[in-house]
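call fold(seq) -> tokens
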Amino acid sequence: MSSSLLKIVRLVYFVLIMQKVQTGQVIEFYSNSCLVKTKVGKFSCIAIKNIVVGDFVELQIIQDSKKPLGKILKIKKRFSCLSIKNLNKEKFFAANITHIGILVSPKPKTSSEFIDKWIVKARLSNIEPFIINNKIDMKSDKEYLKKINIYEDINIKVINCSAKYGDNINELIDFIKNKCVLFIGNSGAGKSSLTSKIIGKNLKINNLSNDYGVHTTSISSLYELPNSIKIIDSPGMRDIELIEYPKEKIIFGFDEILECSKYCKFNDCNHINNEGCNVTKSLSDGVINKSRYNNFIKFKNL
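ret:
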């Protein structure tokens, strides 16, 4: 094909896509712009209010003096969204996540409060939580192993691995097939190392976008891997509070307590000292774990 004919074909192609509204997903988010992937290519777009990585959007392709750009027309309905409310302001971080992988480690030791907060956050965000027990190459004490067993006993998936040495990484990769996952962990738990190991890219190097956007540091990114795996890396999501949720919603992060509460004598049972409380009875009988119960009461009364 001659160069002149090729130019004509390209021109016709861009005219056609510019006339049609495209659907795409935000795969990189910057402070004032984002990168959207569509079936016809990737396009830099000016960010609109509340848009985040993972969002599916409708956009129009426009041509500037240098290259085609995208103009976002609409954010499509999300099936899940992670956000944090602070002083009546809600900050959005990522959307359309199916699973949250909560990284725990023996050193620095992850608290049960951190784990339970994120289980509550995930459940109330329409996201399935699971636990990644990282650093299995390190020696763990009985207390730590007992903590991990608590979650296995309540049917939360636990995957044991070592990001440093690659142990059981294939098991984790197999589990997240056909899923969109965000990893969460305290500082030092190995989140960046684990994500880097899976996607084959060093996330500790903070690069600027040279091909798209306006050269501002990337806040969050979505990585697409074989087997329909999507991993969202969103710095800033770490420890959280649960003050934005109504007290009566907290129990939905504690499946075993919710199930026991169905047999309390009174519908408005406080699950502390009310007559006929099946939750406190189940706690005494060992059906409900004490640390889980203590965190439930603490979160409910924040």
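The chain has three domains: 15-75, 81-233, 247-300.
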